[in-house]
Design brief:
- The complex is a heterodimer of chains A (202) and B (349).
- With 202 residues, chain A is of the alpha/beta class.
- In chain A, 45% of the residues lie in helices and 10% in strands.
- Chain A folds into 2 domains: 127 residues, 3-Layer(aba) Sandwich (Rossmann fold), CATH 3.40.50; 55 residues, no CATH class.
- Chain A has 8 helices and 4 strands, in the order βαβαβαβααααα.
- The longest helix of chain A is centred in the middle third of the chain and has 17 residues.
- Chain B has 349 residues and is an alpha+beta fold.
- Chain B has 2 domains: 156 residues, Rossmann fold, CATH 3.40.50; 134 residues, no CATH class.
- In chain B, 29% of the residues lie in helices and 32% in strands.
- Chain B contains 10 helices and 16 strands.
- The longest helix of chain B has 15 residues.
- Chain B is globular, with a radius of gyration of 22 Å.
- The two termini of chain B are 28 Å apart.
- In chain B, 40% of the residues are buried.
- Classes of the chains: A alpha/beta (202), B alpha+beta (349).
């Protein structure tokens, strides 16, 4: 049995966490990453409950890495932390909890990801922000103002794909996190997550 | 008729286990040696609640000779027969039943018998079983014991007066003896019920017209000029045929199937489910089967994912049996839970 990390989304977070674990030299043999498909399912879905039990009984860690979200959408760091800890207590399980972006502020996975864009390519994000502001100027209800997910999607799609494999991966929302041209996995913004993972998975 | 829940205490490797929300088709998943077969055996004993002699039968499935008294103690948890076995359950009508099995002690060993004056209490062995059981608020007792006589060991049984069992069950592995299967088929043919069975079997072999027994062998008509032996149709067909026959024979009862996929190629598993769901519904038979194969679970999910079979989804439950030291748990999965677990690659076997 391995330590288990529970994330919210199969494609988005799971792929990132797996790439980051590899970057930190933490072996796949020691950890598996499971998607809960949303924070409300985490302590209610039978398969997850069984996995939580199996992991704990084997003396391994149950680690939860979710979005803190914002008060505007019913979340926020304190709110989400309290909710998840209370739910873990309800089912009698110990968990180690990390909330994106840095385990102390409101935000989400995209908030962290934006900070991993290499300096050389931050201009792409500025272009997008200009486009966003430009659209807002028209104040037209028919226009859909792109969100941060769109921003990062547009960012990665700005690059000319290296090969077919990369193109296929992008289509599956696998943004090649291990490629230093696209993402800086040594960025300071990742320090809280790095410390957290190394503490609990060493 | 069948069960909606069961509780097992001190039976084989099971100290305590509860399973509830059983449906018409149930699959018990789990690793080797977790106790899946023991759960089926407990259910079998619960249906034959007035007959503790069935304990020999469940031991026989484990490879012990029939009437083998020395193996009676392995029915008890950790072979500690000071703790009685208790098995209880609620049937689909909500009626409760409970049985408590205790050992009967004495001497059966010839040497000890002939040297009785030198025998001590420590030499006593289990020579029978006593079952104290209740159905609702009515209480009964039954027992059997072996006695050494001039003709060898004879078994005497005491059955409760006025009690008639109303849940029939069969326990079998899919490599069950062909004699068993031929006997059941004979009964179906004699009762002129073979057409009902054939209509289900046509799902897997559309050319099938008839099934007969000739010289104690099963022969089938698949449109050739002559009947052909069933073996020619392959092991998979034969196994599915035997399942359908037993489902029919135990209609309104319970069929307990150990290692349901044993000997079946993964390509026929969806056909297996089609046959089981259709025949179990048609004949009102509850099926409780064990497996440790991911192919079985995946094929079941695929079978039920078709919206035309949506009405079967609520007829089904899977239970993942886990043993943690001696604590056992049954994690209950409906169709959506199975779908989620497979999608997220969570290990549920």
């Amino acid at each position: 049995m391995k330590h288990t990390i529970y994330v919210e989304d199969k494609d988005r977070d799971r792929l990132f966490i797996e790439a980051y674990l590899h970057h930190l030299g933490i072996s796949k043999e020691d950890v598996r990453v499971v998607s809960a498909k949303g924070y409300t399912r985490l302590f209610y879905e039978t398969g997850i409950l069984q996995n939580l039990e199996d992991t704990a009984q084997a003396g391994k860690k149950n680690i939860v890495i979710f979005d803190a979200d914002y008060p505007e959408n019913g979340g926020g760091f304190e709110e989400r932390k309290q909710y998840l800890q209370k739910e873990a207590e309800r089912i009698g399980k110990d968990i180690e909890l990390f909330l994106f972006p840095n385990n102390k502020e409101d935000g989400d996975f995209e908030t962290l990801l934006e900070q991993l864009v290499p300096e050389a390519h931050k201009g792409i994000l500025s272009c997008f922000e200009s486009y966003e502001k430009c659209l807002l100027k028209y104040n037209n209800p028919l226009y859909k103002i792109p969100d941060r997910k769109n921003k990062l999607h547009t960012y990665i799609y700005t690059f000319d794909k290296q090969d077919n494999e990369e193109e296929m991966r992008f289509k599956k929302q696998d943004y090649c996190y291990e490629n230093p041209e696209y993402w800086d996995l040594n960025a300071e913004a990742l320090l809280p997550l790095k410390t957290f993972l190394e503490t609990h998975l060493s | 008729m069948g069960f909606q829940s069961i509780e097992i205490n001190n039976f084989r490797g099971i100290k305590h286990l509860e399973i509830d929300n059983l449906k018409r088709i149930n699959v018990l998943m789990g690793s080797n040696n977790v106790g899946k077969s023991s759960i089926l055996e407990a259910l079998f004993l619960l249906t034959g609640i007035s007959n503790p002699y069935l304990s020999f039968k469940v031991n026989q499935y484990r490879g012990f000779p029939y009437d083998y008294f020395k193996a009676l103690d392995v029915l008890f948890f950790e072979r500690n027969h000071e703790l009685p076995i208790t098995i209880s359950g609620k049937d689909c009508q909500g009626n409760k039943r409970m049985m408590k099995i205790s050992p009967v002690y004495g001497f059966l060993d010839v040497d000890k018998y002939s040297n009785e004056s030198f025998s001590s209490k420590e030499d006593e062995q289990i020579i029978g079983l006593l079952s104290a059981f209740n159905i609702g608020d009515k209480e009964y007792n039954s027992s059997f014991r072996g006695e050494h006589t001039d003709k060898g060991i004879e078994i005497s049984q005491i059955h409760p007066e006025g009690y008639k069992e109303n849940i029939l069950a069969k326990l079998f592995k899919t490599d069950t003896s062909s004699e068993d299967f031929v006997t059941s088929l004979k009964s179906i043919i004699e009762n002129k019920k073979i057409d009902s069975v054939i209509s289900v079997l046509k799902l897997i072999e559309p050319t099938l017209n008839d099934v007969i027994i000739m010289d104690n062998s099963v022969m089938v008509d698949v449109g050739y000029s002559k009947y052909i032996p069933i073996n020619v149709l392959g092991d998979g067909f034969r196994k599915i045929l035997s399942l359908v026959i037993f489902i029919y024979e135990y209609r309104n009862g319970v069929l307990l199937v150990d290692e349901i996929d044993n000997g079946l190629h993964y390509s026929v598993l969806e056909l297996l489910w089609e046959t089981l769901f259709k025949s179990a519904n048609e004949f009102d038979t509850q099926i409780i089967a064990t497996t440790h194969s991911l192919d079985v679970i995946s094929s079941l999910e695929k079978y039920l994912s078709n919206d035309e079979r949506g009405l079967y989804r609520d007829d089904f439950r899977a239970f993942s049996i886990r043993k943690y030291d001696y604590e056992m748990k049954a994690f209950k999965y409906n169709y959506e839970n199975i779908q989620f677990a497979l999608e997220q690659e969570i290990e549920i076997r």
